[in-house]
Amino acid sequence: xxxxxxxxxxxxxxxxxxxxxxxxxxxxxxxxxxxxxxxxxxxxxxxxxxxxxxxxxxxxxxxxxxxxxxxxxxxxxxxxxxxxxxxxxxxxxxxxxxxxxxxxxxxxxxxxxxxxxxxxxxxxxxxxxxxxxxxxxxxxxxxxxxxxxxxxxxxxxxxxxxxxxxxxxxxxxxxxxxxxxxxxxxxxxxxxxxxxxxxxxxxxxxxxxxxxxxxxxxxxxxxxxxxxxxxxxxxxxxxxxxxxxxxxxxxxxxxxxxxxxxxxxxxxxxxxxxxxxxxxxxxxxxxxxxxxxxxxxxxxxxxxxxxxxxxxxxxxxxxxxxxxxxxxxxxxxxxxxxxxxxxxxxxxxxxxxxxxxxxxxxxxxxxxxxxxxxxxxxxxxxxxxxxxxxxxxxxxxxxxxxxxxxxxxxxxxxxxxxxxxxxxxxxxxxx
Length: 431
Fold this sequence. Notes:
This protein is mainly beta. The chain has helices at residues 3-21, 156-161; strands spanning 29-31, 35-37, 46-50, 55-57, 62-69, 85-89, 94-104, 107-117, 125-131, 141-146, 151-153, 169-175, 178-183, 188-193, 199-204, 211-217, 221-226, 231-236, 241-247, 252-258, 261-266, 273-278, 283-287, 293-299, 305-311, 315-320, 326-331, 336-342, 347-352, 355-360, 365-373, 377-382, 389-394, 403-408, 413-418, 423-430. It has 2 helices and 36 strands. Strand 28 and strand 29 form a beta hairpin.
C-alpha cells in the first residue's frame, strides 16, 4: 500500500479518536443568568422566570433545571421546571429561593436568586358618612373618608355639588348605581352618582311630609316613608319626580320592599309597629306581632328578607318581606340600636350600649358579644366595597361635631376622624 495513503488514513483515525474522546474540543463555557418579573411582587402575583440571558459557548444541547424553595405555608409550584422560561404564583408573602441549573455536555453551572414577596396591599375603599346636622340649622353634612390615607374631608357634598344637603340628613340608600340622600326637614330627596356623590337630581317631596327612608320597587320607581304624613311618596326614578302618594294611614319610618310588598316600621311615637303593606293595592295586610318593641328595621342582603331588632325582649327577628313570616329569631344579650351586614361571611354587626357584637346569621346565634368594647356608639357601617373595615359613629349630643371610629374586622381600632353632627349613615365605594 502506498506509504502516503497509509499515513493519511492513520492521521484521519487519530483525529476521529480525539474528537470522540473530546480531547480536541474546548469544554462548553456557561454563564447562567435569569431575570424575573414583576419587580416588587406581592402575594397573589404570577412571577415569570426568564433564563434566556444565560450564555453558552461551544454550544451543545442544553438541559434546563429550575428548583423553587418556598416559605412555610406556601403551595407554590413551578409551571415548567425543565423549560428555558417558567413561572409560579407566589401565594403568600415571604422569601422564594429560585435556582436555575444549566447542563451542556456534562458541564453544569447554576445561579440562584431570592425573591422577596410582600403582603398584598389592602384594596381599601373610600367612605361617605352622612351626618344628621342640628335641627333647624340646615347643616346636614357628608364627610369623605380615605381609609388608605387616613384622611377625611367635611362638607364634601356641598363642595362637590355647590349646594347643601339641607336640614336633617335622615338616611342614605343605594338604588342601582345611584345614592339617595333624604333630607327630612328640607322635604327633599337628593339623587347622586354612587361613585363620587356628584348630584344628578333633587326631588321635592310634596306637602312638607318630612321624608325619612327610601326603597326601590318595580318599574324603576321608589317608595319614600314620611314622618308628618299618613301616606308614602311614589317617585319615578327616570324623571326624578314625585308622581303620586299611597295611602298608609299612619306615619312611617324604615322600609324594606320585595315585589308588591313592603315591611314598614310605623307610628313610632305611639304604637311603634311593623306592618306588611301591599303598595300596589295601598292596603295593610297585617300588623306583625313581637315580644317587645320593634326598634328598627333593615333590608337583608338577599333583598327578600328584612331584619328587625326588638327591645325589651332583646332579639333579632328575620322576616320574609312578601309574607311577614318570621324565618328565625336570634336572642341578644342586650338591646341594639343599629345593624349592618357582611354578606360574604354571613356576619351581622350590631351596635349595643357596650359596643359592637357579631352575630352568625346562618348559625342563628351571637358569635362574640364583646367583639368591640366601646360605650357610646350609635350607628355602624360595614365596608361592603373592599371588606376591610367597619365605621361606627359615636353618640350625638348635637352641640359639637361627632367622631367616627374605624375598626378592622378583628375588632382592632385603626383610626378616628371627625364628621358632622350625628353621623348616622355610611356608603362605601371602591377607589
